[in-house]
Amino acid sequence: MRGLEGVQVDAWGYPDREVLPSSMFRISSVCGGVVLGAYAADAPEGGPQLPFGLAYGFPALVGGQLWHHSHLLAVHPDWRGSGLAVALKYAQRERVLAQGIQRMTWTFDPLIARNARLNLGKLGARAVSYHPDWYAMGDDPATAFPADRLMIEWDLSQPRAAHPPPAPDGEVVLAAVPEGEEPDAPRLNLNDLQVLAEVPRKAELMNEAQRLGWRLALREVLGEYMGRGYVVTDVAADGERVYYVLTRDPQTA
Questions:
Q1: Do 226 and 212 contact (CB within 8 A), yes or no?
Q2: Which of 82, 185, 191, 218 is the most buried (most CB within 10 A)?
Q3: Are 230 and 181 in contact (CB under 8 A)?
């Protein structure tokens, strides 16, 4: 359990106060939570085997509805792109289904395109709601970078097969300015069955001003359309440009 504390530090550079402690993993593991660590299959015997991946979640009960909320999915940077994150999610799914639960939720940062691809394109989940300032990431809210999140919902009973990113199809409601990296003015008045909102392919490499511009633009666009009944169903790609695919129920006004 203590090794899982180190996974969080390796994955995100968390300070001690942000790390979920081993005591929480311990009690969760005997009270209905799912605690998973990934270890090297060929690790030498005799020495300590340290994990390099982590999945953790717990049962959630609100309004009489029971589901599993996945709170952490962490992978050491050396293992990103290896398929480990997908393997951990499916191992988590197997254990949750064994508890008789068929729905899983989690949150992720809408600015991180690789996580969007994992959640929407590889796992076949969908994003159902947008939450501004979901976490307080600094002592001073006035200066902290806003920690907005998309809420993911995954139907465990009918997993969709992974698929390549489709080509963009639909009206674009958010895009970068021509020949630039900053977001252009959003279009908030469309009512098409499917619309597209661009997200930077590698926002983590942008400077803070650019990232904040995209954060606020995505907050405006995704908040508006998801508030009107759209859900994010996929991630489309055209060369180096990446788009959220927002789909509206035809019966939604």
A1: no
A2: 218
A3: no
CB-side neighbour CA atoms (13 Å) of 143: 3
Residue the block writes with tokens 């402690």: 21
List phi, psi (to 5°) of 169.
Answer: -145, 105
Secondary structure (H, E, C), 102-115: CEEEEEECCCCHHH
Residues 6+ apart with CB under 8 A from 119: 106, 108, 125, 127, 152
φ and ψ at residue 87, rounded to 5 degrees: -60, -40
* 250 confidence band (pLDDT: 50, 70, 90): low
- Residue 86 DSSP label: H
Question: Is 90 exceeded by the pLDDT of residue 97?
Answer: yes
For 229-232, which contacts have Cβ atoms below 8 Å and span 24 or more sequence positions? 229/253, 230/195, 231/126, 231/127, 231/128, 232/120, 232/126, 232/127, 232/150
Torsion of CA 180, 185, 189, 192, to 10 degrees: 10
Q: Give the model confidence (pLDDT) of 129-186 as tens digits.
A: 999 988 766 666 666 788 899 999 999 998 788 899 999 999 999 999 998 899 999 9
**What is the Cα 59 distance to its own chain's centre?**
18
Q: Residue 59: what are its φ and ψ, rounded to 5°? A: -65, 140
Whole-number Å distance between alpha carbons of 68 and 14: 24
Q: How buried is residue 245: exposed, middle or buried, by Cβ count under 10 Å (0-12/13-18/19+)?
A: buried
Average pLDDT along the chain: 92
